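Quick question: what would this complex look like in 3D?
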Amino acid sequence: MLVQLKSEKDIEKLRHANLIVSDVLDICQDMAKPGVTTWDMEVAARKYLDKVGAKSAFLNYAPSYDLDPYPAVLCTSRNERVVHGIPSEDEVLEEGDILSVDFGAFYKGFCGDSARTYEIGKVSDAAHTLSEVTKKSLEKAIEQMIPGNRLGDVSNAVQTWVESQGFSVIRDFVGHGIGRSMHEPPQVPNYGPKGRGMILKPGLVLAIEPMVTEGSWQVEVLDDGWTVVTRDRKLAAHFEHSVAVTEKGPIVLSRR
Ligand code: MF3
Ligand code: CO
């Protein structure tokens, strides 16, 4: 499959799907306090999907036959968990945790995808800095989403900023094109040289998702088949936005 550029009409629809995603992440953000379980967030997200008539992009997602389908509408990845953590009634948020919540939804045929890392109560300076650096790396990537730039400029903006702050970028998972499917070409790594890769054109829509760690970028997958953790069990943070390249500059579809 080739990279598909979206029309203005398509981008309008992608905007709708992404605003639903943003609303759910707002709801989860309000809930992100000590004593709340990640399953409480899952329930709230499902309720909102029903209310607006949207469909989860994650529930039952099965990228390959040898993997169990994903069992939830949210990915909730706490502390050393990088991505794809599964919400659980047994997982009670504690003061000092950092929690990435990732959510995707289909609405009127188009997909929205976004993630944020929340601080639970007061967190350590190290955890706060990691989260802020990751958030800023996404903003630096978004700035590169202008016609005539190359994909490598987006990737390199993340890597350069993150490594300048003494942190590492995950290699094994990447961002992606997004449209009528959640995952479309191209892949969007968070590392690599600038000036390389495809030339960005108006209508390109990417889900950019830096995953950043305190220690090494090596990861492993837990026995549930999904949860990605750092091998050294140091902290990880994750932010994601769906972003359109337009003649007038980048549009962050998943931000109100
Ligand atoms: N934002 C993630 C991604 O783009 C979420 C996928 S979770 C899954 O890949 F369960 F759907 F796999
Ligand atoms: Co994504």
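Answer marked as accepted. Residues 113, 176, 207, 209, 240 surround cobalt (II) ion (ligand 2) (CB under 6 Å).
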